[in-house]
Design brief:
- 44% of the residues lie in helices and 0% in strands.
- By secondary structure, the protein is mainly alpha-helical.
Length: 279
């Protein structure tokens, strides 16, 4: 009997709160975040995804109560009244579900599907309009004079537009919780550089090892390849920091443990359980 490589057949299906958001739920979250009133500045879903990825790879576990307010406002100001509204509760539920999914996917499969907008070049109106194509063919050749036609965006510019929101969200979380950035680890620095290269040069961390430019200088001209490289970088960060996140501090005693029926160390002659151990 063939066993699928992705997941053992005996493993139960994930609970409702561990399933990734559907397209309809993504649109619902987008609408909830967009509906947060000014002057609050919420993250959009693409920035949110990078923000959550930066949280799950931190060397310390960070409680949602510390970061969730910054999803709904960049400065962490309260959204609404003290008693959460139905919209606030629903938005928090969807955000926390995505956070759990990212953590589970990285832990179990070493990867995830990031929320990246698919930027496309504007359509050429002449492509579907034969009349427009004929008119273009009849026009005299340009003598070098400037025209009013807008220049088409380059592949690197389209790549930048697609990856910038995710990288900006990641950077936003790193500025709030810099524990990962403070590690003295060359592998961590290299993985962070892969992400930071997608930021504009003026916003990239000063100690970043790569210039901005969305990887164009490194031969990354395809969005899928760039996304794959980004996911690998996040997975590397997750693997490097997992032992730190779940490290257990061992408490060491300065003196040997005294049994309850042994003489109390104070010298009273009474059993420990009837003396200083009575509490």
């Amino acid at each position: 009997m063939a066993v699928p490589e992705s997941e053992p057949p005996s493993r139960p299906a994930p609970g409702a709160d561990a399933r990734d958001l559907s397209d309809a739920e993504f649109d619902e979250l987008d609408a909830l975040l967009a509906g947060i009133p000014e002057p609050l500045e919420p993250l959009d879903p693409f920035m949110l995804d990078g923000f959550l990825a930066a949280l799950v790879v931190q060397p310390q576990l960070i409680e949602p109560a510390r970061w969730l307010p910054h999803v709904f406002d960049a400065e962490g100001h309260r959204w609404g009244e003290a008693e959460p509204s139905a919209e606030q509760r629903r938005a928090s539920e969807l955000v926390l579900r995505r956070y759990k999914v990212l953590n589970r996917m990285l832990a179990e499969f070493g990867g995830f599907d990031p929320w990246i907008p698919r930027a496309e070049a504007p359509a050429d109106p002449a492509a579907d309009d034969p009349a427009a194509e004929e008119a273009t063919a009849d026009e005299p050749a340009s003598d070098g004079a400037a025209t009013d036609a807008p220049a088409e965006p380059s592949p690197a510019a389209l790549l930048s537009a697609a990856l910038l929101p995710w990288a900006a969200g990641f950077d936003s979380a790193m500025r709030l919780f810099p524990g990962l950035d403070e590690l003295d680890d060359a592998e961590v620095d290299a993985a962070l550089d892969v992400i930071y290269q997608h930021l504009p040069e003026e916003e990239a961390p000063a100690d970043g090892g790569l210039d901005a430019g969305v990887g164009a200088a490194r031969g990354i001209a395809d969005l899928d390849a760039a996304v794959g490289e980004l996911v690998e970088a996040v997975a590397e960060l997750y693997d490097r920091t997992t032992p730190m996140r779940y490290r257990v501090e061992v408490q060491r005693r300065d003196t040997p443990k005294v049994g309850r029926n042994e003489p109390c160390p104070c010298g009273s002659g009474r059993k420990f359980k009837h003396c200083h151990g009575a509490g």
